[in-house]
Task: inverse folding
């Protein structure tokens, strides 16, 4: 848990408004757990003060290079998308509890379900799992074909089913409409996306074990400001902090 | 001789820098980032009698050079705070300022009795200015008569010095400060957040689940400086200044306006190391302006001034 | 059908964008930059009975995402304004909102009588909220009884609709709005500047010769949005919203909060073309959010909302 | 009077905290009058909203290149000093009334007196004057040797006397301590600097004709906000606006 000044290796648009940002620096060594995130400052003199939480999408330890995929939608990520190679980016991290090895070793088969910008962390997770000999398959949901990204890479790791809300690619509908067949061999479930999607996934995969990664607007990103709490019945306190207790939680642990 | 040390009622501090209430949790989170013993002191999150879960999320929104928050005084309750949270700060040997809130005079009094009795608590910060809960005390914070009455009772119930934290959402901050001084406060903390709101232009709906929230950060610093300046020239209580402080220069500006110590809130989110970095930079800045003892800064703005332009 | 047009008392405007008082001189300076006839209307600088020179310089200071000003109501007096300034705006055929200030009820009344009689003046904006002169009317702006009394008299003296410009430096903005509504105001303008201050950390002295000044710009937008939201849900007068608006998205946010038109101040200094650029961009944004007529935006925030997160 | 997006050709430190910024673009064509200024935005996403008034120091019309010299002292100019070649800078201008040709043609001899960052506009002015066959000499005042700049260039245009407050270069003292000898052939006076200095120059040159360029904190920079007024007895209004009526005024016209 540290503050790093990483150097932009590349920062390019790989799909509609989706940017692939590669950062390098000694700090990358620590980024070994999928599902953890970096808390990214979008600029030095900017009026946008708050950091943006972005998931670790891939890491190359030899090159000390971390990859983030983000959608340039709001003013902060749009500013981030203007960063040129060679510029510095101030990040905190790796933060949060990601998909730890215990979490990963639930079983021999895993189904990874992601929606929109919930997809990036599943790539690093899938890689780690295949390294461990776990058979992974993916369901990735996007708004539309132009918003989709990294599909070939996911296919290299395992069977990948894509859904789009406008039907322009893969199955027309939501991720839950594509999960069915992949649930038959009772995989453990790993899902990242907006709360509404996670809720649907949880219901669809009822009875199976798994982990969910939550999203919430954050202040500090390190557990101090109580911006990102989520109610739970499983802890005496009655809540968890997504930034520091999560973002990854056991299915059913938190009230979505 | 330590040129940074400042002494306020109950707070003997080796430097004037204190993390602000609610922006530093109960300290242990930032203890993972640096050794808290470098701080002048620490303000802990508001304590209420019973635990509170706070407001629904989203609880924060970003604004230009600032942020809105509507946490809603989430805390485990004074008992747990005393048993589980405060003891974790013991190893750092720094003064602890305990921020307290409540819905009724009785609640404030009971929380004060309990928390001021804790051996590690150096002083109590009476939060009558939380804008984010219908009953977070803001009703005391905008009417100077009830503020005075509450201050008097809390002061009577407290075994430690009491700092009253003022709301900037008033027409006349001096009147409020005079009222609580008269009522026996040992010091003032100012300012709390301004009440603000942000809408998502696409949906036209508030970003915060609570709709309105407290505006903090550099955006409000001019309001804080003005209020501290006005109050310090009329009131003889020491002031813990806060509101948008993000660097050592801001600390000097705020002390010059009349603050005796400075609390740092939102800036901790931008840079978790901001407090130690400020503390490290202060001596060099004092050299630049030829000041030996940092406490000499307090209120120097009230001396006759010349325009910056001709001083180039 | 013009999807941008809005109609307020005395102000039939082809779009809701009006430069804010004091930030646009008397119009002729910006007329050198673009054709003013594209504007919805224009607010001219405050008029007082006699000419005023205003405050010593420096009169402006920069703050984070904002600025402080202490111009001090400099103006040539109502007579010269009517004879020399207002006529220059005739060629543009846009509604003129005449901002007026004074030290006494009598002065306000006399200025109103005169300026409202000018054929080119569409409405009067009663400035009871200038923080920068001991007698700029702020005394009326923070006490709702005197605000109501002044409003009643000015309204009686005026041959044009009267908009009362509210100060944000109050504990209860709704109370103030209700008071002036009850007193017969035709509309509200909000908000004026927050009172702020900036010190030069090196010298410890105020940057502004007037020491304190009015805080404007994006920094105060959350306060403006909150106050407009609160007031619009309690008061049935049309609101000219202002405070930190710098882009078309801000206009939509402010109208969603309850404004019927939007004034742009400080942003003119950052970009002299900001008003025409906003007007040009608005239709595309309305398309994005599926709104035909811009006036449909007014107050849509009060409909039940959902969290932005799950709406991704 | 326009808004231009100019391209940074170079931006380098030529003396202690003094930067030479060369900007190019079609807009430069209009920048023909010395003493006028550009109102410069220091960044795009910055929290520093107000523009910085910077005087035109030199112009190359063929290359459509304008030179500004500025001291990176406060936060805005420090941000400006971080601009790299190729980046864009948003400027308004040329603004204000500079040293017009009537102003320049007062006589055959001119003494140009500048202090600190009041020095830059005198270079462009001196060039225009020598072009017109006017004999120019300069008195340039600095804090100290390390703050001085462009001396050789000024010497190419005419006799140049330098003063420093710490005596580390030229005459020890203020500009007024060096003016004496150069006043003998009764030149017309042109002076730029802080008010205190202009006042002293005015007294020292009592009896001579001349023009002064004033400084003040500005808002709009175009005459609309009344931030930059200066009292005068010579106009019915009782004031002038430095940004639009000035910054250049006839000696004695304004109350310093
Ligand atoms: C643990 C975690 C991991 C994430 N990983 C990724 C990722 O890998 N790729 C990606 O594109 N996005 C990711 N997100 C979402 C991402 O943080 C937001 O899209 C981003 O912060 C929006 O910033 P903005 O400048 O575009 O929007 P703005 O509207 O300018 O943001 C304003 C404020 O709201 C916050 N905010 C707005 N939308 C969201 C959101 N959906 N979630 C959290 N905060 C938000 C911002 O952080 C900022 O504080 C993740 C979020 C979390 C919580
Ligand atoms: C007509 C004119 C021409 C000028 N020409 C030059 C020049 O060629 N080179 C140069 O280095 N400087 C020049 N200056 C001064 C220059 O504008 C200031 O040094 C600069 O604005 C300071 O900005 P900052 O970010 O360094 O300081 P900050 O303290 O960050 O500035 C804060 C605010 O105060 C204003 N301000 C601060 N100091 C001054 C000042 N001395 N004069 C005017 N406004 C100020 C800034 O514009 C800004 O709005 C000129 C000023 C004027 C009025
Ligand atoms: C997330 C957050 C939570 C806060 N919680 C409290 C609180 O519990 N009690 C309190 O008195 N002030 C609270 N505040 C106000 C701060 O202590 C401080 O007064 C204010 O934020 C201004 O300082 P700043 O601009 O440095 O943040 C909170 C502020 C923030 C941003
Ligand atoms: C330089 C300046 C001068 C102003 N003069 C006046 C004035 O004469 N009368 C008035 O009612 N408001 C005046 N205002 C306030 C603005 O009209 C507006 O209410 C305020 O600046 C908030 O809007 P903004 O953030 O868009 O600037 C002035 C503001 C500025 C910055
Ligand atoms: S973001 Fe601050 S506690 Fe999670
Ligand atoms: S800076 Fe606005 S009038 Fe001169």
Result:
């Amino acid at each position: 848990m540290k503050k790093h000044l990483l150097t932009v290796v590349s920062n390019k648009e790989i799909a509609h408004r989706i940017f692939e940002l590669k950062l390098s620096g000694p700090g990358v060594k620590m980024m070994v757990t999928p599902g953890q995130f970096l808390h990214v400052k979008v600029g030095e003199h900017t009026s946008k003060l708050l950091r943006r939480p972005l998931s670790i999408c891939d890491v190359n330890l030899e090159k000390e290079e971390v990859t983030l995929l983000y959608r340039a939608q709001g003013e902060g990520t749009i500013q981030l998308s203007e960063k040129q190679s060679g510029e510095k980016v101030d990040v905190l991290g790796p933060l949060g509890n990601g998909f730890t090895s215990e979490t990963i070793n639930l079983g021999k088969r895993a189904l990874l379900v992601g929606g929109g910008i919930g997809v990036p962390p599943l790539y690093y997770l899938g890689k780690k799992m295949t390294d461990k000999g776990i058979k992974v398959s993916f369901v990735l949901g996007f708004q539309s074909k132009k918003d989709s990204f990294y599909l070939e890479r996911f296919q290299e790791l395992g069977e990948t089913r894509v859904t789009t809300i406008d039907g322009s690619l893969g199955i027309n509908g939501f991720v839950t409409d594509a999960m069915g067949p992949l649930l038959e061999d009772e995989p453990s479930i790993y899902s990242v996306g907006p709360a509404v999607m996670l809720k649907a996934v949880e219901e669809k995969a009822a009875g199976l074990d798994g982990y969910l990664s939550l999203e919430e607007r954050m202040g500090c990103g390190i557990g101090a400001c109580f911006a990102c709490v989520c109610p739970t019945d499983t802890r005496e306190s009655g809540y968890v902090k997504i930034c520091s207790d999560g973002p990854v939680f056991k299915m059913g642990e938190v009230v979505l | 001789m330590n040129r940074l040390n400042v002494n306020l009622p109950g707070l003997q501090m080796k430097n004037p820098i204190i993390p602000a209430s609610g922006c530093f949790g109960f300290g242990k989170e930032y203890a993972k980032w640096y050794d808290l013993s470098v701080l002048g002191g620490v303000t802990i999150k508001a304590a209420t009698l019973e635990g509170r879960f706070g407001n629904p999320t989203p609880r924060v929104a970003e604004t230009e050079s600032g942020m809105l928050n509507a946490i809603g005084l989430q805390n485990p309750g004074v008992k747990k705070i005393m048993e589980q949270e405060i003891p974790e700060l013991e190893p750092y040997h720094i003064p602890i300022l305990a921020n307290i809130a409540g819905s009724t005079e009785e609640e404030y009094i009971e929380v004060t009795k309990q928390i001021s009795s804790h051996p590690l608590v150096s002083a109590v910060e009476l939060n009558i200015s939380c804008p984010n809960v219908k009953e977070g005390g803001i009703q005391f914070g905008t009417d100077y008569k009830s503020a005075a009455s509450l201050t008097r009772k809390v002061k009577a119930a407290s075994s430690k010095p009491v700092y009253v934290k003022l709301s900037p959402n008033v027409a006349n901050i001096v009147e409020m400060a005079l009222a609580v001084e008269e009522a026996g406060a040992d010091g003032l903390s100012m300012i709390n957040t301004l009440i603000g709101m942000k809408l998502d232009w696409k949906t036209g709906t508030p970003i915060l689940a609570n709709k309105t929230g407290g505006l903090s950060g550099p955006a409000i610093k001019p309001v804080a400086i003005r209020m501290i300046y006005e109050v310090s020239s009329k009131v003889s209580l020491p002031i813990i200044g806060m509101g948008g402080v993000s660097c050592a220069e801001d600390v000097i500006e705020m002390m010059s306006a009349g603050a005796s110590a400075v609390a740092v809130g939102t800036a901790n989110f931008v840079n978790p190391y901001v407090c130690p970095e400020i503390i490290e930079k202060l001596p060099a800045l004092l050299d630049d302006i030829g000041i030996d003892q940092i406490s000499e800064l307090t209120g120097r703005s009230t001396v006759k001034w010349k325009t910056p332009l001709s001083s180039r």
The helical segments of chain D are 75-80, 101-104, 120-131, 151-157, 176-183, 195-204. The domain at 216-256 of chain D is CATH 2.10.240.10 (Dihydroorotate dehydrogenase B (pyrk subunit); domain 3).
